Amino acid sequence: MRPKTRKQIEVVKLSGAMRSLTSAQLSWAFRETHEHFAYRLKSGVATCMDCGHEWKETAESDTMCRCPKCGARLQVKDTKERVVKQKSYFNVITTKADYQVIRSFQIISEMRKGYQAKYSAMAICEYWIDPKGGKTVMGLCRAMNSYFYDVFNYCSPFELRHDNEAFQRIADEWVYPRIKVTDIIKRNGFAGCTHHINPVTLFTQLLTNPHAETLMKSGDIELLRYLCYHPQEVDKYWNTIKVTKRAGYKVEDALLWFDYIKMLDRMGKDLHSPTLVAPRDLQATHDEYVAKVERQRIKEQKEADRKKTEADEAKFEELKGRYIGLVMSDGEIVIHTLNSVAEYYDEGNRQHICCGSLAYYLKPETLVLTAKIGNKTIATIEIALQDCRILQCRAFANGVSEYQDRIAQIINDNVKLIAERKTA
Ligand SMILES: [Zn+2]
Questions:
Q1: Which of 25, 250, 273, 402 has its Cα between 20 and 30 A from that of 38?
Q2: By percentage, how much of the chain surpasses pLDDT 70?
Q3: pLDDT per residue as tens digits for the range 159-182
Q4: How far is the CA of 26 from the centre of ligand 1 (A)?
Q5: Where are the domains of the chain?
Q6: What CATH architecture applies to the domain 321-423?
Q7: What is the reported pTM?
Q8: DSSP letter string over 321-344?
Q9: pLDDT category, 233, cuts 50, 70, 90?
Q10: How far apart are the CA of 55 and the centre of ligand 1, in A?
């Protein structure tokens, strides 16, 4: 993107004047964000994959040892492999003019047995946060790739970009420990540690959200962390948070606590009662409320089901009431209507058909009848009310009824009876 606004022009200019990574930053990133190995053969000879030095190592496999030459801490691996390639991301947090800047780099390394390890870094993106919390993003162009989020076009110009998931995730990776922040961020409580919160989110919140400032200053890091990902919830329950603070309660597990508070809220409990919102045993009280909420949910579901059944019965009465009790027969086969919603369900369950579950009792244009010989159901029949045409005649589990023709005859003989009910 070409810079258009005054701020964008300024950011592009300042970004171009940033210093390159120092060797201290680069070697920190290699040391801390990549793994380091002593590759050991069966003979017991280990090779430091950092510097290439060889020696006899007796430490157990997968434990740590130290290279006698370069002093690197290494993980002992019994392997014949000769090459290790690694990639990671790290961030340098600094300032420029009035801006808080988060610079994200990719570092790649290649370790080859017997040689000094090689590594290099390149800038992937930068977040420029102004004193009001506004973000401007510089970076490389992302290459479209459906398997990896972090594929970039390394030849693309480092320029203004839209914020995106790849940059956000990278900014949440390793942070170089020497952090420089603007005076405003310092004044708003930042004391030199991001506490593994995404620095872009953390600084934006510290600049724009007074609650973030309060929590940072009071050392409520777990609540601050929660705020960075759910600012609206912290807003909504801010008064409850204040109640816990006055009660001298420290929220250690913010996820669990918010989960619990939201349940109290759902149950209509008093969110300003210290005994409720600051429980002595959060886990136990939380679990107790999980059970309460579940009981409440079942109760509500039952109530909703009951209301629905009532409404269905009323509707059924209105639609089919006039046909209730209709019976016809040829002397052996007896056909009669299903006379309630419950009978539709019973028939459906008994015959393994869907006249209940698909709410045939609410179909305005049709009527369902059941045909029996003695106590045995031989078919379930759906007819069109308009002309008494048979739409379906099903035996058990949607099978074909062997009495189909006789049933058709009976219905045919009683068209007049049905029609009388229709006009009644
Ligand atoms: Zn070494």
A1: 25
A2: 100
A3: 999 999 999 999 999 999 999 999
A4: 18
A5: 6-175, 321-423
A6: 3-Layer(aba) Sandwich (3.40)
A7: 0.75
A8: GGGTT-EEESSSEEEEE--SHHHH
A9: very high
A10: 10
